[in-house]
Amino acid sequence: MRNLSTTDWKSELADENAVILDVRTIEEYNNGFIPNSVLIDIQDPAKFTEEIEKLDQSKKYYVYCSSGKRSTLACQVMENMGFTNLANLEGGILDWDGEVKQA
C-alpha cells in the first residue's frame, strides 16, 4: 500500500485500470463522494470481505474514507487478501480538494 497526497492521488486516477473505493458508511457517502467511486463499507466486515473478493486483483485500487484511518485498514485487509496495487488517500475526503458529488 502506498499513502498518497491528494495531488499524487488525482494524477494517478487517469489510469484506465484505476478503481476508486470509498470505505465509509452509506450516510457519509450520501453527504458527498469522489466521482466514480464504489462504496464498500468497511464497518460491516463480512460484507466488506464479500464485496472485496469479487474485485479484480489486477486493477489499481485508490481507497479513501473520511480521514485516512479506515482506508488504511481497508488497504491492509485487501493486502492480506492478495491485492498488490493499493493507494490510500492521506487525510481522506476531508483533505480532498477535487470534485465531490452529492448523492
Automatic annotation (TrEMBL):
<dbReference type="InterPro" id="IPR036873">
    <property type="entry name" value="Rhodanese-like_dom_sf"/>
</dbReference>
<feature type="domain" description="Rhodanese">
    <location>
        <begin position="14"/>
        <end position="101"/>
    </location>
</feature>
<dbReference type="InterPro" id="IPR050229">
    <property type="entry name" value="GlpE_sulfurtransferase"/>
</dbReference>
<dbReference type="InterPro" id="IPR001763">
    <property type="entry name" value="Rhodanese-like_dom"/>
</dbReference>
<dbReference type="Pfam" id="PF00581">
    <property type="entry name" value="Rhodanese"/>
</dbReference>
<protein>
    <submittedName>
        <fullName>Rhodanese-like domain-containing protein</fullName>
    </submittedName>
</protein>
